[in-house]
C-alpha cells in the first residue's frame, strides 16, 4: 500500500475489482464470470464520457484494509497485477499508468448476484464488513453492467451527470 493507505496490519486479499469514481472507491465482488470487470469498464467509460474523475484500482484481486489514521477502508492493488485488466476472450491487457491508481478510500461495496438474490431496489440496511469496518452494499444483478452502472452512479449521486 502507499503511504496514504497505511494499514492496521490486518486486512485481506479480496476476489474483487475496484474502481474510483469522483474520488470514491467502489469494491465490486462476485463469483468468477459474474461481470466484475465488465462493470468496471462500463463505469470507467461512462465517467470518462461525462468528464467525471475515475480510475481503475485493481482487477480481480485487491487488498482491503483499515487505515490506521482515518479508520477508513482502503483498497489497493497487489503489485504483480498493477495496471493490468483481464478481458474475457482477449486476455490480460496493460491499461497503462494514465488510467489506474494504486489505492482508494472505499465508500461502497457491490455484490454481483444471480437473479434470485439481487435486490430490485437497494436495501438501505445491507452492508459488508471488512477489517472491522462496515460498508454499505448493493446486491446487483450479475452480468448486467449497464443497469448496475446506473445503480452505482445513482447511489453516488452522479446520475444527473452520467446518465
* Cα-atom radius of gyration: 15 Å
In percent terms, what proportion of residues is strand? 35-45%
User: For the terminal residues, how far apart are their CA atoms?
Assistant: 33 Å
Helix tally equals 3
H-E string: EEHEEEEEEEEHH
What number is the mean pLDDT?
91
| Strand element count | 10
Biggest sheet, strands in spatial order?
1-2-8-5-4
Flag low-confidence runs. Answer: 1-8
Helix % is 10-25%
Biggest sheet record: 5 strands, mixed, barrel
The shape, in one word, is globular
Summarize the structure.
This protein is α+β, with helices and mostly antiparallel strands. It contains three helices and ten strands.
Structure description:
The chain has 163 residues and is of the alpha+beta class. The protein contains three helices and ten strands. The protein has helices at 36-49, 145-155, 159-162; strands spanning 12-21, 24-29, 54-58, 61-66, 73-76, 84-87, 91-94, 103-113, 127-130, 133-141.
List keywords for this structure.
3 helices, 5-stranded mixed barrel, disordered N terminus, alpha+beta, two-stranded antiparallel sheet, globular, 18% helix, 163 residues
Amino acid at each position: 500500500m502507499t503511504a496514504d493507505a497505511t494499514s492496521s496490519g490486518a486486512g485481506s486479499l479480496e476476489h474483487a475489482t475496484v474502481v474510483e469514481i469522483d474520488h470514491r472507491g467502489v469494491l465490486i465482488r462476485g463469483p468468477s464470470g459474474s461481470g466484475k470487470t465488465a462493470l468496471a469498464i462500463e463505469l470507467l467509460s461512462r465517467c470518462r464520457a461525462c468528464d467525471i474523475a475515475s480510475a481503475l484500482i485493481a482487477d480481480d484481486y485487491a487488498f482491503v484494509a483499515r487505515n490506521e489514521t482515518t479508520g477508513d477502508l482502503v483498497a489497493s492493488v497487489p503489485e504483480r497485477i498493477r495496471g493490468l485488466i483481464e478481458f474475457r476472450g482477449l486476455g490480460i491487457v496493460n491499461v497503462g499508468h494514465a488510467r489506474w491508481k494504486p489505492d482508494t478510500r472505499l465508500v461502497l461495496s457491490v455484490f454481483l448476484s444471480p437473479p434470485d438474490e439481487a435486490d430490485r431496489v437497494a436495501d438501505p440496511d445491507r452492508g459488508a464488513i471488512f477489517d472491522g469496518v462496515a460498508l454499505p452494499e448493493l446486491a446487483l444483478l450479475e452480468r448486467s453492467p449497464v443497469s448496475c452502472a446506473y445503480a452505482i452512479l445513482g447511489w453516488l449521486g452522479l446520475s444527473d451527470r452520467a446518465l
